[in-house]
Structure formats: structure tokens, C-alpha cells
Amino acid sequence: MTTLSAQPTVETLKMLIGGRWVDAQDGRRADSINPFTGKVWATAPFAGVEDVDAAVRAARSAFEGPWGSMTGADRVKLLLRFADLLEAHAEELAVIESTDNGKLIREMGAQMKALPGYYRYFAGYADKIHGETIPTEKPNFFTYTTREPLGVVGAILPWNSPLLLLTWKLAPALAAGCTVVAKAADQTPASILKFGALFAEAGFPPGVFNVVTGDGPTTGAALVGNPGVDRICFTGSNATGIQVMKNAADNITRVTLELGGKSPNIVFADADLDAVTNGVLAGIFAATGQTCVAGSRLLVQSEIYDQLAGRLVERAKDIRLGDPLDPASEMGPVAFRAQLDKILEYVRIGQSEGAVLATGGQRPTAPELGNGLFVSPTIFTGVDNAMRIAQEEIFGPVLCMIPFETEEDAVQIANATPFGLGAGVWTLNVQRAHRMARALRAGTVWVNAYRTLSWAAPFGGFKGSGIGRELGLESLHEFTETKSVWIETSGASQDPFRMG
Ligand code: NAD
């Protein structure tokens, strides 16, 4: 069996194109830095336009060749075999991801353990993709639809959960019969390349899954602009998503966009405050706040505002920062320097806007944290929803506490951002829970829970948080085209000057 283990010395990684491990044609490379040690731990090729084109051509020829001629039942077998291999390598892949992006081994370990389930779930659909017979108003026609695989998919990924967010695209795309070119985030090339080694072992034909590495403006843009790509599935920031959509328009390339959020976590006075405290921590400090569904705006009914603020500040001060590879650590560093600077700049903005910095807001100085890019868990109280810290995605461990009086106020404040990705509601009143679930403009609403996902439940954004859905049956259809077929059954000839 292939060994994927992370090496202690700097690794020289290669890209996967057409089943071969290759360098960029011009030999360029880029470093990947371990955010805990601050040291380069791997280097990856920097793909130019010609490398991306080679990957798209490899994906196209697999689509039109051996992969395209397989049946759904063949794809089921391959996906299930691949899921077993992933399961066997889950721990190694978790270590590689933590080393690349600094997220806790607890978090990445759980994500990697869950990955095989996604492939098994979509394997279950791979031999059940079919159209319908359509009874039309025209008696002399037999009409039916087929659902055909869309073609070549370009998957553009962020650094925060590379393999999980790749899987959300890859598992349904493969189940539907598409081929994929993945573009790893600039900061996290390693896990996706290592993961690529498992495809040949599972028995997939070369070119079904390809990986290119490099930056956004060169490598990512080359993928979006390549006319051989049928759909771009993008997860990342809003600014890049807008660019991707504009560039994809030139070739009428379809887009799925999973973008940012400023999700409200809404606490009513009747809620169970122990459960709320854990839910709020999970929403904003787990993953060091570097998650698109971070519950970064905490809306709290005014009668319990001070009490909950006191509890959260106390718990936040106790969060154990440390080496992401140490299972006892509760919060790791942020993933790279620019992200750290951005978070600290938002702390300054919050203070200048008049919010109260109740805890955190600086780089901790404990010697055991060394050169790690840490920010202490940060809570702002007295936040007004119009402030920039309440409107803009910080993507770090910064919680903004906003008071509200009534249910109507809560809905109005919650919906008053350009985003609509997730929302949490904490109440023991079942009628209110249903009213809130209906009123919130968000792709996912959790009641008395936060940050729970499943391969079976569609995920995506309302408003500025994106276009389309990943996961669930709904996502599978994004990787197919529907064809209507009309069969004339009477033998009559048609009037050429009249639409039939
Ligand atoms: P980013 O937009 O900076 O980069 C994402 C990817 O796009 C990278 O691979 C990058 O190289 C590439 N890219 C950059 N410019 C490009 C261009 N012009 N053309 C094509 N590709 C280009 O995002 P990030 O900082 O890596 O990730 C963080 C963001 O991702 C946050 O906003 C977060 O909310 C969002 N996110 C969303 C979800 C979701 O499912 N909705 C999940 C995770 C992260």
C-alpha cells in the first residue's frame, strides 16, 4: 500500500496530471510554511497556463475515453474502493493537513475520518442517475430525459479545510461521471497531492483526477479561463468569487460558488446557557475562527447579555493554545502571516469603532508558543451591527456580541449583512424555533446546535454567500446536464413551416 507519511525534512512535491507526477514545465516552485514552526516544510510546483491546459486535456481525454465508457456500477466499485483506501490513510492525511494549515489535529483528524463517508454516500447514487419519461400533450411523440455527466470540473480550493472542501466537489462529480482538475490553495498544496496518490491504487483511469498547484492570479485564473472546463466549483473569499464568476462568463462556464459568511448565532433568554456556551465556543473559537460558517456575530437577548458575556470571557481566557499536532491543544495558530495581520487590524478597527474589547485581541507571549501565528481568543462586547467588525468577514477567533430586545429585532439584525451562509438559534420554545428557522435568510440554520454538517444535507449560501449547493442529492445534479429526447412514433411527415 502507498505510504503518504509527512516527512520531517522539506518535501519536494509534484503535481498529478494524467496519472503522472510532474513538475511545472518552467520548473517554478513555491514554498509551503508550517504556521506553528514558521518554517518551510514542503515545496510544490507553480503551475503556469500550459500546465493547467495539460491537466484539463488529460481530464478531457479520460472523460471521452476509459472513464466515459464505464457504467455507473463500475463507478460505484471504484468509489467504494477509494473510500476504503482513504480510511486506511486518514491519520496520515490529518497530520499533513495540520502541518500545512496549522489547524488542530483534533479537527483535521475528525474531518479525515469523515471523508470516506462522503465517497460512500455518493457511490450509492452513481448507478441511480437517470432521467424520466415525460407525458407531453403531443400524442405522436415518446419523450424522455437523460441525465448525462457534465464533463470536466475545475475545483478551486481554500486553505482552511482542503480535503474536506475538495471532497464536497469531487465525490458527487465522480459519482456523476465527470473528471476533475483540482487547484489547491497557495498555502496548502501538500494534502491534496498526497491524496492524489490513492487514485491509481483504487483503480481509477489516469486523468480522472488531476491536481495543479500555484497561486490564484496565474494558476487559478488559467483554470477558470480554460475553455475545456465545463464547471468551476469554487470555495473561497467573496472578492475572488466575483472575479471567478466574471472570468467564467467569457466561456459560459458554469459556476458553483461557496463564499464567505458573517453568521449570526442568536441566543434567547429561555435558552440552556450551558449548551449555549459550548455552542458559541464551537462556533467561533474551534478552528481558530477560520471556518466559513463561524458564528462570528453573537446576538444575545438583553436580559441575559451581561451574564453570558461574563461566562464566555471566562471560558475564552481558559482556552488552551498550543501545537496543533498536540491532541490536548484547543486552539492552534492562524494559517499564515497575512491572515494574522488582518485579524489584528480588525481588532484595532473594532476598538476605533467604539466596541469594548472584553478579552484577547493580541498575540499571546507564552514561550511555548514560539514563532506560532497565534491570536488570543477575542471577544468584543457592545457591538452595533452596523460596525465593520459586524459586517465584514474576519476569518479569525473574534466574536462580536450584539444585544437585541425582541424576536423581530433578532431577525432584522441577523439578516442585515450581505451574507447568508449559516445561522444558529438557541431557544427552548419550539414555536419560536420554527418561526426563526423560517425567517432567517441563510443556507443552513441550526437550532440548539452549531456547526453540524452531513454529506446528505445540502450546504451553500443565500445572498452574497454563494451560488448553488454542495452535498446531498441536490449537488449531484450540478454535475449533470439534462437532455430531452423526442421520438416521433406515427411516421407522419411534418409541416416544415410550422413549429411541431
Ligand atoms: P481566496 O479567495 O483567497 O482563495 C481561494 C482559492 O482561489 C485559492 O486556491 C486561490 O489561489 C484561488 N484564487 C485566487 N485568485 C483567483 C483568481 N483570480 N482566479 C481563480 N482562482 C483564484 O480564499 P481563501 O483565503 O483561501 O479562503 C478563505 C475564504 O474561503 C473565506 O472567505 C471563507 O469564508 C471562504 N470559505 C467558504 C466556504 C464555504 O463553503 N462557503 C468554506 C471554506 C471557506
TrEMBL record:
<dbReference type="InterPro" id="IPR016160">
    <property type="entry name" value="Ald_DH_CS_CYS"/>
</dbReference>
<comment type="similarity">
    <text>Belongs to the aldehyde dehydrogenase family.</text>
</comment>
<dbReference type="InterPro" id="IPR015590">
    <property type="entry name" value="Aldehyde_DH_dom"/>
</dbReference>
<feature type="active site">
    <location>
        <position position="258"/>
    </location>
</feature>
<dbReference type="InterPro" id="IPR029510">
    <property type="entry name" value="Ald_DH_CS_GLU"/>
</dbReference>
<dbReference type="InterPro" id="IPR016161">
    <property type="entry name" value="Ald_DH/histidinol_DH"/>
</dbReference>
<feature type="domain" description="Aldehyde dehydrogenase">
    <location>
        <begin position="21"/>
        <end position="485"/>
    </location>
</feature>
<dbReference type="Pfam" id="PF00171">
    <property type="entry name" value="Aldedh"/>
</dbReference>
<protein>
    <recommendedName>
        <fullName>Putative succinate-semialdehyde dehydrogenase [NADP(+)] 2</fullName>
        <ecNumber>1.2.1.79</ecNumber>
    </recommendedName>
</protein>
<dbReference type="InterPro" id="IPR016162">
    <property type="entry name" value="Ald_DH_N"/>
</dbReference>
<dbReference type="InterPro" id="IPR016163">
    <property type="entry name" value="Ald_DH_C"/>
</dbReference>
<dbReference type="GO" id="GO:0036243">
    <property type="term" value="F:succinate-semialdehyde dehydrogenase (NADP+) activity"/>
</dbReference>
<keyword id="KW-0560">Oxidoreductase</keyword>
